[in-house]
Please model this.
Amino acid sequence: MAKTPSLLDLIGLLPSRDIARAAKAVGLTPDTLIKRVASLESVIGTKLVDTAAKALKPGEAGRLVIDHASRIFSQARDFTRDLEELAGLQAPEINFGTDMFAAELPLGITLGRMATANSRLRVHAVVGDFEELTRAVLGGKLEFAIADTTSAERHTARLAIEPVAEHRMFFFARHGHPLTSARDLSPESILAAPLVSPRVPQRIAVHIAKSMPLAKVDRETGDLTPNLMLDSFAVAKAAVLAGDAIALAPLTAIEPELRARRVALIPFDAPWMHMSYGLFYPRKRSLSRAAQLFVTQLRQVETAIQAREQRALARMNIKRRGRKSKSATRMPARKTGASAKRAARPARRS
Model:
């Protein structure tokens, strides 16, 4: 550490909140650290931190100075990183988080295309629920996240949020499950079965919590913890296929299993059965050049997924949802076996 600490040094020491711990981290005694902070304050011309209580606690002026300095240092690091990537001096790197459905739908194709375009690309992707990802982005552990924005929307002063896509959701179960052939189902009858799902956002939780006897709802957020909370869609599907559990998913996520008759849709539909996800990142930091390219590619992949979803809905004779309707509806039953053959026969001429 320099004889007089810089603002960057001070910003690095603040998280400790304790003078003794901060002094030990830089190899100084507490008294020496206090004197050097005082020297910095004399250079700047204002009191930055209150050290009377043996704690590094910034005052009003200190918070203002440190906040602006943090933003400047962050932008300087981002600028240096982008220049090095552009000049080929540094391999492009992205460190981000994603939730289960974003990981299942556009993520793999997006990363595959980017790795093909630039073999030097380095990626660290963390899969988690939207609450965990929001905390990680706010804490600086992740550059950004592609996930349900429910939790991020509680921190709009600190996070920039950009919508990416919205998909209809459907209950599904293993092929042959009693619920897949039942009629006039209610949420209570469906949710008597164990639900396999990631953390359920409040906008959906309000519709299903009262129908789930073992539901656990977060008192602060209104989010719901299902019977089997998983962040891996592969594990969730395996759990559904192995027993009587049910799950929610976008149609395109289970289309191969539907065609192979390994799973089947549960004939129930409601306007609240949809997922939306987006991009969120700290307002004080711009996305890296590699991250911007990633988001552009992700949006292109998502456009293709949306088109595939519409074709699947049309093929399965699933009607579009009316925006004004708020009631649950029964989906048309798919004709199978003898009934399908009879429907396919031409009508006899009289």
Q: What stands out?
A: The chain has a mean pLDDT of 82. The domain at 7-80 is CATH 1.10.10.10 (Arc Repressor Mutant, subunit A). The longest helix spans residues 60-86.
